[in-house]
Structure formats: structure tokens, C-alpha cells
Amino acid sequence: MSDAPIEIVSGDPGAPVAASVIWLHGLGASGDDFVPVVPELNMPATPAVRFIFPHAPVQPVTINGGMPMRGWFDITSLDFEQREQDLTGMRKSVASVNELIEREVSRGISPDKLVVAGFSQGGAIALMTALEGPHAVAGVMALSTYLPDADNVLQTFAGRSIDAASLPVFMAHGQYDDVIQIRFAEASREAMHKQGINVQWHAYPMPHSVSAEEINAISQWLKGVLLP
């Protein structure tokens, strides 16, 4: 993975910004993928929310025959129970997202007005960032994903001076997801529940994707955690 500064897609909301959302895409996609979703969220014009969509670095990905593509970490197999996790790549991406959080803080956004979000691979990084990172963010949105290295990540979270119940987590998953089976998301949800983390759970009759009903739920959740 490159050490170059992470590239982003970010629009100026055209009004004073009161909150930010850093939204990570899935494997092989780009930061442009979720840009069209923003108007569907019906967020108010003021106070404005800045949406930031980073591009994952281009790197060789094993399940892509070793050919380069955008990815937050390498995936050696879709067999979650047998594959070796690329923890080095994951934590390198977590560090990159933390740099984006620091940039937002330097622009005047308090961490408690910032959500880290992601889909699939991006959702895994979003969860790790929110649970392990130095800032107590407003919440984390994890779509069609799971929490990697859950035992160690939650142990790190338990050692932070953060009230677990004060970290809102939005998880949504397709019941027919054949890329990341829903049982892995459910196991992550239960592990977080045991740590006292407040997980708002949604399951939809869909594959590895995002639905209109899910976007509506995301809109309500974001407004609840970011806006007065």
C-alpha cells in the first residue's frame, strides 16, 4: 500500500459546516461511489454536513489474481473462517482515516460531530477506526460488513476512557449477502453488545448492496447523532 497522502472526494456544502462524515467505499470501488447517495439523505442545508469520500490506495489484491485495484487491505480468500487477515494493511488504513479525522478537527469540527462510515471493506476499517482511534467520534456507520480482529479491537476499546454506551453504531446488512454472510455481521454485533456498545441493527432482503429503505434509515440515524 502506498504511503502517499490519501486522495478524497469532498464537496463544499456551501454553508458553515457543523459536522462531517468520512465514508469509505468497498473493494475495487472508489470514493465516487457513494457521492450520489448524499442528496437522497435529505440532510438540512443548515447546519451543513460535509461528506468526505476517500479513495483507497491502489494495491495488489490476492482474490483479484494479484492484480492491482483500490482496496483498504488485501483479501486472500472469501472464506472468512480460514483466511489469514491482512491486519497490517487494515491498521495502515485505520491510520490514514485517523489523519482525515485530524484534518477535520483542525478545520474546526469537534470529534463528537464526526461520523466514520463505510461499506464492506470500508465498513470494517470504519469500525476499527472508531473503536481503536484516539478520538471519541459521534458514531460509526457500518454497512454490509463485520469487525475484523474483534477480540483485540474490543480489548483496545475497553482500555479507552470512553463510555461504551455513548458510541452509537449503525449496522445494516443484506439477508442474501453472499460476499460477507450476515452471520459474520451478527457475530460482530453481539461482540460489541457484550462490550456495552449501542448497536442499531438493520437487516434487509437484499444481496451485498444498499437499498432505498436502508438509505432512509441512514438519514434518520445521521440526523440523530450529528444534528441538534
Explain the overall architecture.
- This protein is α/β, with parallel strands linked by helices and 228 residues long.
- It has a single domain, classed as Alpha/Beta hydrolase fold, catalytic domain (Rossmann fold), CATH 3.40.50.
- It has helices at residues 87-106, 121-132, 150-158, 182-194, 212-226; strands at residues 7-10, 17-24, 48-55, 58-60, 68-70, 114-119, 139-143, 168-174, 198-204.
- The strands form two sheets. Strands 1-3-2-6-7-8-9 form a seven-stranded mixed beta sheet, with helices on both faces. A two-stranded antiparallel sheet has the order 4-5.
- Helix 1 packs across helix 2.
- It is globular.
- It starts with 6 loop residues before the first strand and ends with a helix.
- The mean pLDDT is 92.
The residue fraction in helices comes out at 25-40%
Structural class by sheet pairing and helices: alpha/beta
CATH structural architecture: 3-Layer(aba) Sandwich
Find the count of extended strands (DSSP E, 2+ residues).
9
Any idea what the shape is? globular
Give the SSE string. Answer: EEEEEHEHEHEHEH
Tally of distinct domains: 1
Oligomer: single chain
The end-to-end span amounts to: 39 Å
Kindly report the CATH topology: Rossmann fold
Mean pLDDT: 92
Number of helices: 5
Please write the CATH class name. Alpha Beta
What is the beta-strand fraction? Answer: 15-25%
Strand order of the largest sheet: 1-3-2-6-7-8-9
Low-confidence stretches: none
Radius of gyration: 16 Å
